[in-house]
Amino acid sequence: PAGFVAAEYPRAQAPVALPGRYTARLSVGGQEYERPFEIKRDPRIVATDDDLRAQFELMVQIRDRLSEVTDAVDRLRTARQQLETSAPADATAASAKEKLGAIEAALTRLLPAVNPMKLPPKALNNRLAALTSAVGQADARPTRQMYAVFEELSAGVAEQVRQLDEVIKKELPALSKQ
Question: What CA–CA distances, in Å, run from 175 to 85, 90, 96, 167?
Answer without folding.
Answer: 11, 9, 9, 11
